[in-house]
Amino acid sequence: MSCPRIEVDLRKLRHNTRTVVERLKGRGIRVTAVTKAVCGHPAIAQAMLDGGAEGLAEARLSNVKRLRQAGMTCPITLIRTPMLSQVDDIVQVCEASYNTEMSVIAALAAAAHRLNTVHGIILMVEMGDLREGIMPQDLGYIGQRVVDMPGVALKGIGANFACLSGMAPSATKMQALTALANQVEEQCGPFLETVSGGNSANLPWAFSARATGRIDDLRLGEAILLGVDPVTQEQIGGLFRDAFTLVAEVIETDTKTVGPLLGTADHAPTIIRLVPTTSETTRIILALGNQDMDVAGLSMPAGSTLIGATSDHLVIGTTEQKLRVGSEMRFQMNYSALMRAMAAPDIQTSLHNDRPGSQANDAHGPKKHLALV
Ligand SMILES: *Cc1c(COP(=O)(O)O)cnc(C)c1O
Fold first, then answer.
1. Which of 219, 228, 234, 334 to mutate to test the pocket of ligand 1 (most atoms within 8 A of CB)?
2. Which residue, 174, 253, 322, 346, is most buried by CB atoms nearer than 10 A?
């Protein structure tokens, strides 16, 4: 099998999704599965839908197009503020998008109007992460402008936490979001179908005994894909942490000469001592590097330590004596490593435990799209 590769256990992803969906159902919260870390991989998205996610969310138009090209017909929401230069494509392939800029909303409205469709708008509110969002005091005014604009429909509001600031959402913030939802409805009229509380960092709040208020949706990527809380990196009870495994191949196991090379006369180069001093530790090189991967996000197998990486080489010290040139080594990845590896052109994806006969689009039935670009 080709190396390096990412082995994806789709059964574990279905399990992770179903477990979270079931736990949140009792709290009145739907799951929107976020596929950006896997670049909109259709089979992975399908596993999340099979596990009970209501729809998909993506940050990039290119990934949405990949999903549509594979025949996915479920609702897809763009969670990154649309680029002005992409509005025409966005209204054709996404049911809705998260927005923070009136000029972008106006362009989406014009594009949708031209194409004789209506694009859903979810307004992202700034609640402390200090990444994207409309200031809470401006929400009512902007909501009203959306309502008055042909081509777009105000579908909801949302907030985002712990991305830029690393700050997890508190119960107080969630109460404030509920209050904002009520306020926008009072001011602007339409019922808000979606009040999206945030991402995987919201799960400790969502699983707690606290009232969920108006929050009826969470956008989940990391929790489902890696089974961990993004803030603490702790395992979420009942979820698999190893749905993804990176496999890389050993290309050298020799130990390096230590000390000045013979015959180099005056300017003998300083040689860095890379060989561990213990005789039971071997230094190996894997065909994998910074160009493929966030090496710092790999967890080393027991008995192995990371020595360093360059663009194409990963150097590891290991007590595993069975490793030879041609052997494979397996690693777990954090979110950053997974994201980079899934986007790396030299890393293959190998799917396991797919459902026999499962089709990309049979879970949600036919639904029209203006264009399958
Ligand atoms: C990435 C992202 C998410 C998903 O975050 P996870 O931590 O992977 O659950 C949700 N919402 C927005 C706006 C995002 O950018």
1. 219
2. 174
